[in-house]
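Q: I have 220 residues here and want to know how they pack in 3D. Can you give me a structure?
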Amino acid sequence: MQGRSFEGVTDLVGVAVAGAGVAAPAFARRAVPSLGRSGYAAKAMRLSHALLVALALVLAACAAPEPEPPFLEGAIELGSPLPPFELDSLDDGKFALAEAQGKVTLLEFWATWCVPCHKQAEILAPLYREIDPDQVQFLAIAIGEDESTVREFVSRKPFDYPVLLDPVEELAFELGVVALPTLLIADAEGRVTYFRPGVMEADEIRDLLDEAVSGEIPAG
């Protein structure tokens, strides 16, 4: 324990939260300060506290059937317009939201290290092959990682739809993404119809896309 920083604790917290179906993005993990090299007793006490917090997160996620998702203050709300953005794409260019104008848009926020994100991608892959590309646009937005890291991962596990890069998490922070994976769906008018962290099953996503195509915005 001597000289150990708080980064190991945040890793444990990330693993624990991932066990509940979500993982914290980098800007959330950066909010935890380092312990430095102060006394052993203080570090041990804080480590124990952090582990208890991680355990509480897992137990709360298992106990609550419909937990309220974590959001940053000022996070985008249902019915609000999705703000315009332009991000670098792995296709050696840029992708602007305007390119999906008139389509329902699904944004999948993920990271290469996020195990629940891999499961979500596996669920979305066959679903993407079902949709009408003239009506629906899928976008995978990798946050907090550089292009080479994302490109190497995608070379092994390719996506059928565009992979965009948000390396400094500017878009993720603007929208209020605090856990991964997070799915956001906007209708053809650009209004947000769904925004929530956690792994979603195909049937639920299919229903959400149908609602968005119809222009229906769920309450709450």
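Q: Anything worth noting?
A: The longest strand covers residues 136-143. The beta strands are 86-89, 93-96, 104-110, 136-143, 163-166, 182-186, 192-197.
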